[in-house]
Amino acid sequence: MAYAHPIHRRINVPVPAPQIVVYPRTLVFSPGPPPPVGYLPGAIPVVPNPTFPGVVAPVALRLNPAFLLRIDEQRTQELIQFMASEGLVPTPEEEMKRRDAMEQLEQIVLVWIKKVAWQRGLPKEVIDSTSAAILAYGSYGLGVHGSDSDIDALCIGPSFATLEEDFFIVLRNMLQSRPEVSEIHCVKSAKVPLMRFKFNGISIDFPYTQLQAISVPDVVDIFDPHIVVSDETSWRSLSGVRANIRILQLVPNLKNFQSMLRCIKLWARRRGVYSHLHGFFGGIHLAILAAHVCQRYPNASICALMAIFFDYFSHWRWPEPVILQDSSIPFKYPDGRSFMPILMPCSPFEWCNSNITRSTFDKIKAEFQQGYLITRDLARSDFNWICLFEPFPYTKRYSHFLRICLTAHDGDELRDWVGWVKSRFRSLLLKLETVQGYCDPNPTEYVDHNVAEPNVVFFWGLSPNGSFSTNVDSLKEDFMKSVNKEDMYSGCQGSPCKLDMLVVQSCQLPKHIHLDWSPQRD
Ligand SMILES: Nc1ncnc2c1ncn2[C@@H]1O[C@H](COP(=O)(O)OP(=O)(O)OP(=O)(O)O)[C@@H](O)[C@H]1O
Ligand SMILES: [Mg+2]
Ligand SMILES: [Mg+2]
């Protein structure tokens, strides 16, 4: 079966087609390289494994293999049904809409590049032959997107089309004039500068890479540093595509990897540990963790992979780094400041950006442990996947919350304001940890209907042992220094964008806000 995906159209690296799962499959253990030091397949009693001495197998393996196989198939079926009931896989109509958006974007960048070539006064034959292209990466490129995921699409252009002028001005203006495009804005100061907009309602993240060529060839070897114009930004912007390709090459069974990652992402959202800006995981972190497990257990079914994932990472000796099995990786050990170092599987072999702090590290570990307790015995008669995906019970866990309310004049201003403040949240989290000890920054964005202006409200759980006498005014004052540091909101005090902070008790939460319901997408 061939795996066709937009990402593979212009690269010359073969990506393996999904393999048929080969038996014997096992419930919680499959032959493979020994797990890393510190890993024990389960807290359930273990027995020596005769096939792989030194590697222990769960006691469950002493059970009748036919029974195990039946359970394995049953739990896998139940998980697939659960995924369907949750709508984890987009419908064919949704897929068509995404493909259509990609095709239209490709047409737009083709027109754009001819226009830029003409504006530069390049010879007619160059104008005729030049081209630009689009490559999908992120969750869409991996084929693990949900119906509300964004599309991460890298625009590749020739050497004469610059980021500052041609991409951020000329192309932006062209996009802005299209009826399909809305909410467009530029994020120029990021490590990977990009445009962000909606195309027919689908969110698009749109960075740019400049090639060392007058035209983008049909086949691009994106692993060759010489093809990219010699600026670090262009090379870095390509890293998302390169990382995806390495992941797709390294996982032994693509279909199982995709299903498992979709489930893990749902779990992370439901348990409030999915949002890079709030100090939790982003999509790339979970993709690498999932790929790591898939590499080591090539024959495991989806349900076994889920169980192994929680077993594996609840016993992981953090800050031991997570690195995909790939002998070609030349990397330096992390500097010791990172709580959960995860290596990007491609040049420049950097650690994934992480905002994880002491509090969010503790929460993630607790959630791994909880996931492990739920999935360690899939043969239990009362086992139900729903338990794994229960929304995190904020109001049962915390009696007090930090309420952060952001308001603006209109929806456009609010969107920019919220994006900006979120990009500064790490400093607020660190400050809260020093005064409160622990904080659980619930990533879900709520709307308070009791506030007249357009608003987004966050409720962060505060330490059950905290005094709750935090001086919110001084906390806010400190945080606003970080928010106002750059030009963008330096005049915030006088601007229509506002930020309010307050400690509230769970009984003071507005009636229409339900913290314990399924979180929306970040
Ligand atoms: N913290 C990070 N460190 C390194 N690369 C990152 C980081 N965050 C994002 N990226 C790059 O940008 C890509 C897209 O990120 P994005 O936040 O859209 O997540 P995603 O994996 O596409 O999941 P989602 O379905 O939530 O959009 C990632 O695949 C990765 O290549
Ligand atoms: Mg994405
Ligand atoms: Mg994105």
Automatic annotation (TrEMBL):
Protein name per the record: Poly(A) polymerase
Protein family membership: Belongs to the poly(A) polymerase family.
Residues the entry annotates as binding ATP: 150-152, 205, 265, 274
Co-factor(s): Mn(2+); Mg(2+)
InterPro entries: NT_sf, NuclTrfase_I-like_C, PolA_pol_cen_dom, PolA_pol_NTPase, PolA_pol_RNA-bd_dom, PolyA_polymerase
Domain Poly(A) polymerase central, residue spans: 256-390
GO biological process, one term: RNA 3'-end processing
Stored Gene3D superfamilies: 1.10.1410.10, Beta Polymerase, domain 2 (3.30.460.10), Poly(A) polymerase predicted RNA binding domain (3.30.70.590)
GO CC list: nucleus
Residues that bind Mg(2+) 1: 150, 152
Primary localization class, coarse: nucleus
Domain of life of the organism encoding this protein: Eukaryota
Location relative to the cell: Nucleus
Residues that, per the record, bind Mg(2+) 2: 150, 152, 205
Its EC number(s): 2.7.7.19
Cofactor detail note: Binds 2 magnesium ions. Also active with manganese.
Keyword vocabulary terms for this entry: ATP-binding, Magnesium, Metal-binding, mRNA processing, Nucleotide-binding, Nucleus, Transferase
